[in-house]
Structure formats: C-alpha cells, structure tokens
Amino acid sequence: METFLEYAKAFVVGGALCVVGQLLIDLTKLTPARILVSYVVAGVLLGAVGVYQPLIDFAGGGATVPLTGFGNLLAKGVKEAVDKDGLIGALTGGLTSAAAGVTAAIVAGLLAGLIFKSGSKINEK
Predict the structure, then answer these.
(1) Which of 37, 52, 77, 92 is buried deepest, with most CB atoms within 10 A?
(2) CA-to-CA dists, residue 118 to 31, 61, 76, 112, 114, angstroms
(3) Cβ-contact 63, 51 below 8 angstroms
(4) CA distance readout (Å), 107 to 56, 61, 64, 68, 118
(5) Quick one: DSSP state of residue 124?
(6) pLDDT tens by residue, 50-98
(7) Is the pTM value of this prediction over 0.70?
(8) What's phi and psi for 31, nearest 5 deg?
C-alpha cells in the first residue's frame, strides 16, 4: 500500500504540473518554448527560496522529473558549489549537478539520430 501511495503522489503532482503547462498552451499566446523555459526558471526560483525541496520530499519523481525539477537541480548545484568554492561555484555548480541528465539527453539524441532516418516533413514537388 505504501508503494501505491508513493506512485499516487508522484502522479498527482507531476500531472498537476502538466495540467498547468497545458492550460498555459491553451489559454495564452505563450509558445511551448517559452513555457518550458518558464518551468525551468520557476524550478530555479522555488529551489532557491527552499520551497521546492518539500515538494520533492512529498512527491518524489512527480516533482523531480518535470522541468521544474531540472531548474531546482541547477539551483541546488549552484548553492552547494558557491558554499564550497566561492563565486566560481556560480558558474560551475549547475553544470556539475546536472551533468548526468544533460549527458543522457545528448546520448539519447545521438542514438535517435543514428537509428532513425531524418528528412523533410514537407512534400516537395
């Protein structure tokens, strides 16, 4: 039962973040790219003020997997690096903390490029 509750919390929180994104797409003139950037920035801001960590503790993957979780990861990495290395940590902390996720995205993109055939989606006559 405890595992089911963890999954339910992750589903509700992650789903709520997706619903907000969908509402922004449907009800505003914001482009998806701007919404994605807004999610990362919101995660950075919420992480910087300490509000996002309790959400992670509650929802687990439902809070860490969306882009807000990536922003929070960047903020946490910068904070830890600044505490450890001083001002230079502001430049290196985010990259260090998010390196695994960025590497996975690059490798997945490379594999997709090698496996699937790319081409124009417009039929040229």
Answers:
(1) 52
(2) 25, 32, 37, 10, 9
(3) no
(4) 26, 22, 20, 22, 17
(5) -
(6) 899 999 999 998 998 888 988 888 888 888 888 998 888 888 888 788 8
(7) yes
(8) -80, 155
